[in-house]
Queue: 3 jobs
Job 1
Amino acid sequence: METVVLDHISKTYEKGTVLAVDEVSFSVNKGELFGLIGPDGAGKTSLFRILTTLLSADSGRASVAGFDVVKDYKTIRRIVGYMPGRFSLYQDLTVKENLEFFAALFGTTVEANYSLIKSIYEQIKPFNDRRAGKLSGGMKQKLALCCALIHKPQVLLLDEPTTGVDVVSRREFWDMLKSLKKEGITILVSTPYMDEASLCERIALIQSGKILSVNTPDGIRRAYPVKLYAAKSDNIYQLLMDLRALEWIEHCYASGEYLHFNFVSDEQNLLAGLEEYAVSRGHRHLVVREIIPDIEDCFIRLMNEGKWLSEEQIHAII
Amino acid sequence: MKILFFILRKEFRQIRRNKSILAMMFVMPVVQLIILPLAMDFDVKGVNLVVVDNDHSTTSQKLISTVTASGYFKITGDVLSYKEALQFIEKGQADIILEIPPAFERNLVREGKQQLALYADAINGTKAGIGSGHLLGVIRSYNKDLEINLKAAGIKNDTGRIDITYSNWFNPLGIYKYNVVPAVLVLLLTLIGGYVTALNIVREKEIGTIEQINVTPVKKWQFILGKLTPFWIIGILVFTIGLIVSAVFYGILPVGNIFLLYAFAMVYLVAVMGFGLLISTYSSNQVQAMFVAFFFMMIFMLMSGFFTSTDSMPGWAKLISELTPVTHFIKADRMIILKGSGWQDVKAAFFYLLAFAVFLNGWAILNYRKTN
């Protein structure tokens, strides 16, 4: 069953001159942990604001748990938990006051849904009387998540919850999401970090307001159409320049300590040719090996190709 | 209703924790009421006078001492020529020059008449006008007491003259602060209602908390009422403090019905809060709201009859002045406090304020949207 459905949603700003979301369609199944992956400015927040009824789309339809975001916005506000990208709780109220206030707004109490937030809330409980503005980044994140969960929402919408949070807190946060998923809550989460994509059940890659691909993380990696290689040498910058100069190399870009590249065709002799070429250019300690592409590689490839999936393909995937 | 209670509790908590705003809200009325009326004094006293006495006779000496004795004037210079006297005016050391011509006494006795010259520095029009008016009055009474005129009066029976006596009502001594203090009370309510409300709501926009509120089932009216009520209560409190200060410091006790005065203050607060709310719906940050509010506040203050009477404004300005809620409250406020006007006298102003309250709040609520 599809809980969150977007159907050809478009949104422009500045009187139609800036296209933020371009004919976006995808859907999230009930109880799924779905990731919306894309760089800053890709249109992720606009989509979230449309789904949370804070923004109305120019065209297209969207629904959450079967309720239309325009017609049934009042119902949606009751069943959706939203955590905006920016910390949006009252900084001058304490942890406890914030939590109680948001519970009250939904006509419930902290005690009524305590079991749901227990594991998260226990971690910030020692700071109950501290003002929210004085909490550390990770703590703020946990408090915001508690506040978004306090009314036991059916759908949880998290807009870049891990942006600006340290690595350990990010790990913890994803663990929390996994345990929430077990409670049967549908979670749509956005992130600019490609490495977090593999933590989702399914992901949508988004760029410039367009959906590049929707699939499981593995599915997206498997759909990588060519063999991908990693290479490094003593002079990595020179190697990048040299590889880019070769016309039988399709794409080459830096990724961590390696360069990732692929050939225009999958012929074996190209690899041997490459090594010969590198040595002739004076590269030492050359390492070249075939690798399994990660989400970032897939994203870059999809972006470079400008190959947006057609509607039929998207529906075939969904 | 329960939700409204929770919102109110939250608002009061936040106000209580914002020490600087809280202090401003209660220190401001006291300071403003004590300082402004003392400084803003249109009563003219201490006019600086330069005398050019070309005669040096007993009569001219007598004239000068009469002028000095009146208490309005301070002789800052006694020079020999008009040119020298003008330097005093140029340096800003004198406001008025009184020139006594040569042979003043002789011609006065011989021909029975004489002329004096009076030059006023009219940069400060009020001071020049009132100052020379006073001087003319002093000279006129001196003239009457001159020996030759007394003789003449004794001969001719003085029957055809019209004697004018007058009295100032509601402010017998014509003291300016009686005019200002009630107006400062209005200023206070305007600041609390207009500024603080606008800034408070925009702050929620600025720090993003309004987003979080907007995705809850809280209704528009609950949120707005929750925002306005605390400041309304504070406004009434500040108004009360203001009344106490003006009674203690200036002895100005409302002559009219105090409940009528409060009824006005209550409706007026709703109107200016509607204005603050309206500004907040159009601005996206506090700086913006501040400037927009400041722009309108200046117009409100300067055109509302706070300083100058609206009756002396040109037609178009009077119209603008009528279109601000401040004007109507200042008028009614002065009438009730100083004149003791009753409901019948001020009901037009009351309905104006009511209309402003409905109009401004209605517009603001329509413009305040949870979605955009």
Job 2
Amino acid sequence: MQVFKKIGLGFAAMLASLNAFADYSWNFPEPVTPMALDTLHVHNKFMLITMVIFVVVLAIMIYSIFAHRKNKGYKAVADKAPSTAVEIFWVLVPFFILLLIDFVIMGIPAYHSVVMMEDTRDKATMVIKVTGSQWRWQYEYLDGEAQGIKFVSNLTTTDDQQKNLAEKSENYLLEVDNHLVLPVGEKVRILMTSSDVLHNWWVPQFGSSRVAVPGFIRETWVQVDKAGTYRGQCKELCGKGHGYMPVVVDALPMEEYKVWVAAKKAEIEKAGEIKEMTKEDLVAQGKGVYEKNCAVCHQVNGAGLPPAFPAMTGSKIALGPVFGADGKYLKDGHLDRLLNGKGVMPSWKATLNDTEIAAVITYERQALGNAATVDPIVQPAQVKAARQ
Amino acid sequence: MSATTVAHDDVHHDHPTGIMRWLTTTNHKDIGTMYLTFSLVMFLVGGAMVLGIRAELFQPGLQLMNPDFYNQLIGVHALIMIFAALMPAATGFANWMIPLQIGAPDMALPRLNNWGFWLLPPSAILLTLPFTLALFGIGDGAIATGWTFYPPLSVQGGIGVDFAIFAVHLLGVSSVMGSINIIVTLFNMRAPGMTLMKMPMFAWGWLITAFLLVATIPVLAGAVTMLLTDRHFGTHFFDAAGGGDPIMFQHLFWFFGHPEVYILLLPVWGFIPQILQTFSRKPMYGYKAQVYSLWAIGALAVVVWAHHFFTAGMPVPALLYFMYSTMAISLPLAVLFFCWIKTMWKGSMTFETPMLFAVGWIILFGIGGLTGLVLADVAADAQYHNSYFVVAHFHYTLFAGGIMGIMAGVYYWLPKMTGNMYDENLGKLHFWLTAISFNLTFIPQFFVGLAGMPRRIPDYALQFAEFNMISTISAFALGLSQLLFVYIIIKCVKGGKKATDKVWEGSEGLEWTLPSPPPYHSFTEQPVIK
């Protein structure tokens, strides 16, 4: 066993020296939740065990390769099968070594990790709902003082950066407009679902990842013990925007978190106000909404990606009537398509507020090479009425 | 490859020549040759696709392709490599070598054999046709869901998904027919005196593979058919809105998908010990222990499937069961590794190319196996799952464990098949180029995976840039090295030093008692095993 220890220590030293290269990352990033810390320990321990196995086995084999060569005049020693009790014992040695490693050295800590990972409710102080959709995350606070806060988190890395036309920002592809904000030190139960296909909400420093399944609720939990901003990505292939729906979480100390909650509530209240807007204001606001939510399929210039994603420019829907003679929105009209979706086109009812829907419709009708004459603009109040 | 076998035709037989020979043949060696050639061609096609992927990942940003096309490449690369490169290679060896190894004149069901092969080219066309159709504005390209077909993404997808479903059906039918043929041959056509426990290890590996295929391919066929009806006929097997469950597909798929890993590896575990014993010049160690271990792995293979989607969410007892049962696979594997090394131990070893590949295979497959052991841990799997760590892990098992194993087999049996020795120096060069560039491609992927890079993304954050660049450069070296492999094979088929019947000094077994290349009807008189 002395030899094993030495080799183990040697490897530990080697790993430590590898960690000295600060620019590269050789292992999991710094853990900030109990789960991630546990995962890192489990990982390090298992890696060490498997490396020891690997090195020992390799050493035996390499010794044999150099010692038992024909060109050194080594004559083969005939041994056909384990026939005596001693030989059978030797075949079973690796079996029992692995039995010990699998079910005792690795198996027992693994059991505790699983139980900890799946205990989402015990001592949880708040609940949030995370909804994956192509290709953005929606967050909703379900209880406590933040109850009712609900927003969408979109990638902010520009198209130009992705196409190498502009310099890439520091957090290229890992930056969003609205960060999820969580209080430090609180156990947060996360309910996970999806509005379309499978997604997976993953922040490497949190050590938890769970698939968002449409029509089902899955659970996980995080307890961020260190204030900071943490970044991750969707981890389940979810279509062409799979690489473009990052997760960004701000962990704030409780007092700062409370300030954020108050500010966010005020902001949402203000955004929800319905007021009469001019065409110019609607188009200006609509441009932002469009580029965040629609451009990924219909493209920034409105050209779309036919046949899957039709062009906005010259579109029959964007130029045709929105409302019927009775003032109600038409089936398969512009507003209907946004509120209810069709096929690959998602419903935006729950994602965008009245003003945003009115603005983006007006933008699509009056910009991107379009100039609709029937129903040229849509007012927030009309959207609000249409929802009822 | 076996053009020279024509010379050994018995004169009273009337065999068509030229193209008709290959279209109508029911000869196990001709069909084996076609399987192996098909596999080699598709290996290059799948390889070219992955070089496109690696080129895109050379630097952050989108340089060469849009994300949708990228997603198509990753899925079709995997489907081609698994179904059209690795599986046909193993079946090709089975066709060539099983009758030779058990002293039979041919496979038991020669016409089925012919049919099994001729289903492959249409399915390869089905897989790749959507790329071409998209160029003419028909559909939006090939399947873009990865090779796993997960709904609802695959329900949302375009005609590429339908093409892939039908391709998988054809490939599945072909595999089941090949398996039935192998099972029937092994049970009925062994030479007198060759009891089951005297069968060559390669035959054992294939027998278990064949049972796994017959057991699991129908489940895959059912799953993709349900997907097809969900897509076009309004069923809701995998749609919660109609009472279905998307995760049920994952259970069905991986009930096939995990055994599939062993389907790809068991034939290799069969002939690697034969190579080791040949070049160690002593009988393989622990024949019985190896056979029992292969059975144990075959049995465990069908009861561990859910470890492929721990993060999809399941009850704690299920997580624990699938974790512990997965870990248990390492027990018979440890016995196998022990036997392989013990076979080499105190042998009189030489290191021709097949032996180099076999030894390199033990080391690299060992890395794949050990990383698989840590992946079984549910908590750690939350981090590894769908990251590049997993990509590196399964390329150690399937490229090193699968394809490099197949390469060992190619060098080992090529002289027997063609009657000519391959160029030993070039073979050794091919080994070293492959082994080194393979490691330089995939070791960096372990590190980017641990650092948090998800798989199946066309573009990535700046922190992953250096490792991806190393990986891409090495991948091109790995890809180009395979052209040398093709050259070596062609050169060997065309000529070279004549091979003796025994080919290798230490070779044992019935296939080495026949001339190189063997006569058209392998054993016209049954040899007797004492």
Job 3
Amino acid sequence: MQQKGAQVAFRHTGLVYNRDGQAVRACADVDFTVPAGCSAAVIGPSGCGKSSLLLMAAGLLEPTDGEVLVNGRPLTGPRRETAFIPQDLGLFPWKTVLQNAMAGLRFHGMPKAAAAQRAREALESVGLEGFERAYPKDLSGGMRQRLALARGLAIDADLLLMDEPLSAIDALLREDLQDMLLDFWRRSARTQVLVTHSIEEAVYLGQVIVVFSDRPATVACCLDNPRVGTPDWRDSDGFAAQCRAVREALARAVDR
Amino acid sequence: MRGPLLRKVGAYAFAIVFILAGWWVTAWLVNSPALPTPGATFGVLAANLPALVPYFLTSTGRVVASLALGTVLAVPLAQVCARSRRLDGLFAPVLYILYPIPKVVLLPILLVLLGLGDAPKIVLVTLTVFFQVLVAVRDAVRAVPEGAVLSARALGASRWGIYRSVTVPATLPAVFTSLRIGVGTAIAVLFIAEAMAGSTGLGYFIMQSWSMVNYPRMFAGIVALAVLGLVLYGIFDAAERRLTRWRS
């Protein structure tokens, strides 16, 4: 188990990409830090470039301006200890549940038996024991979600990056999965960055809520949300008030 | 599990009975030595088997070599085309123009250039297979889920790792689908090539028997060619099924 989460810092990060010969500015001068062990929620208008931000944090996309630092060092590519869950979860449909959970360890060169052992433990911790030989198509949406998480647990990630992972899941199940994410985060020292378009999700899971403006995405404001993880947070008056605050911040960010 | 399996066996049994009945009725109606009844066919096959075997092996070798060669040439090119926009921009129009041309019309040219042996036949069938596999695999590579590639990269996969864990398993079913669909055309083209030139292969065997007015021998050759197609189809179908168990 990782003893320490990773610190992620965006330093005047910008991204310009080329689409059909036109320069599109996805994000500009993004500057914020997610402290080690913190759970941050990134929220902003849809299509504002939040996803690009996450890709840069995962080392999958190189910023065109500024840099992204993890534990103080500029990223040059994907890190071994970063787990990235894309919007469609990025499972391998042609691999079994166990092979999916093992994938990262196998890419890192771990022998099969040891990787399978670690993957089994990860699957057990998300409640997928007994499904090792199933294929992703045999799983429900929530189980697939948990498999994606198990993949990150298996590689013992110190940084978990998620791009709207729960957007395709219905409301009640979604709350269960949010509870699971919260639980995993609290029981580990892992840093977690969640991109979402749901205000409630951001307030339920983010110790820090980073509100983004419209394209090009840039940080409009950061809201502290210290009561994350306290009992009955979702049903408290404070939760509703915090949601209101985020909604107002979002509205201001879009108007700007 | 037993219900669907039984139903499947039943469906195949019905199909076989249906085909045999249709064959029998047709044979009875035309009443010609060129089309023996199903019952007479066993005797015809047994009597001509020794003569048939070398021709059968020649044709099998040619078709298998062409299928292998066509696939080996098409798959890497399809991967590269689907991956690089610039190369695809270059190749797509070429493919678009060449794909619909029936490759079999090139046979006379190949005969002039390559003679009467194995070479023109293998080249012609390879060409036929090549285009079918190329088009199918190119589309399959394009349909590889983007998230799978991203998460493989994020999980630390090397270029080779992505190829082995994402691209190949995602596109291999398309290879076998195109081979399964292409095997009929491949054997048809081979038959024409063998019938037109040279003195080897089942195509020659069938047409030679025809010109000798030895109809039972001719029919034995036809059955052998049909069996070759059926067996190859079965192999590709089984491979495709095995490789697509993960699909819904």
